[in-house]
């Protein structure tokens, strides 16, 4: 299986938590990226995405005044390690709704991986990600159903997932 370190981008755009949303938007535009990793010292603590910029504007807030550290994130920072498989990271992305995940080794930022890198490295993942997304949507709607997707215990694809003990499990793991 392909590892994160083989496909991650090493040139990560970073900034401090004191950055305004307007400054973040300008940096993303100038660098043609969809996110900036927010650092405290040499440690990643957050990620600001183009979606965050849109949310600030849509909520009627002034992007010149709102600082990155003032964003009320509903989700904690999700990270990967260089040795994670891209399947593990794809599963994290679908489960958490993140499209970009900072890659950390020994507490230090070493890269970033997005859904685009995963799909470029393994086009066959399109079907897996699609099935995982369908299953994630269905999880909220009807957990008594039998679904297709990735088993949360063994990580294998199954057409027979059932919700048991708070996890979607394949036949073998039940």
Give your account of this protein's structure.
By secondary structure, the protein is α+β, with helices and mostly antiparallel strands. The chain folds into 2 domains: 4-121, CBS-domain, CATH 3.10.580.10; 137-169, no CATH class. The chain is built from 6 helices and 8 strands, in the order αβαββααββααβββ. The strands form 3 sheets. The chain has a 3-stranded mixed β-sheet with strand order 1-2-3. A 3-stranded antiparallel β-sheet has the order 6-7-8. It has a two-stranded antiparallel sheet with strand order 4-5. A hairpin with a 2-residue loop joins β4 (100-105) and β5 (108-114). α2 (21-31) packs antiparallel against α3 (50-58) and α4 runs parallel beside α6. The longest helix has 17 residues, at 125-141. The radius of gyration is 18 Å and the shape is globular. The model has no long low-confidence stretch (mean pLDDT 84).
Query: Based on helices, strands and strand pairing, what is the structural class?
Result: alpha+beta
Distance between the termini: 25 Å
Give a count of the beta strands, DSSP E runs of length 2 or more.
8
Round the mean pLDDT to the nearest integer and report it. Answer: 84
* Main sheet makeup: 3 strands, mixed
| CATH architecture title of the largest domain | Roll
Number of helices: 6
**Strand order in the largest sheet:** 1-2-3
In sequence order, what are the helices and strands, one letter per element?
HEHEEHHEEHHEEE
Stretches with pLDDT under 50, minimum 5 residues? none
What is the CATH third-level topology name of the largest domain?
CBS-domain
CATH class of the largest domain: Alpha Beta
Tally of individual domains: 2
- The fraction of residues in strands falls at 15-25%
**Name of the CATH homologous superfamily of the largest domain:** CBS-domain
User: What share of the residues lie within helices?
Assistant: 25-40%
Shape: globular
């Amino acid at each position: 299986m392909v590892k994160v370190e083989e496909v991650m981008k090493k040139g990560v755009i970073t900034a401090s938590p004191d950055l305004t949303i307007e400054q973040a938007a300008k940096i993303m535009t100038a660098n043609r990226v969809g996110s900036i990793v927010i650092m405290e010292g040499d440690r990643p603590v957050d990620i600001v995405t183009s979606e965050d910029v849109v949310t600030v504007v849509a909520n009627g807030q002034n992007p010149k005044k709102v600082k990155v550290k003032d964003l009320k994130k509903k989700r904690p920072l999700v990270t990967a390690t260089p040795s994670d498989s891209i399947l593990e990271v794809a599963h994290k992305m679908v489960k958490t709704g993140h499209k970009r995940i900072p890659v950390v080794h020994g507490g230090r930022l070493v890269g970033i991986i997005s859904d685009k890198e995963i799909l470029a490295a393994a086009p066959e993942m399109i079907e897996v990600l699609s099935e995982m997304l369908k299953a994630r949507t269905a999880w909220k709607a009807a957990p008594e159903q039998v679904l297709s997707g990735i088993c949360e215990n063994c990580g294998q694809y199954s057409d027979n997932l059932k919700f048991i003990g708070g996890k979607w499990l394949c036949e073998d793991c039940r």
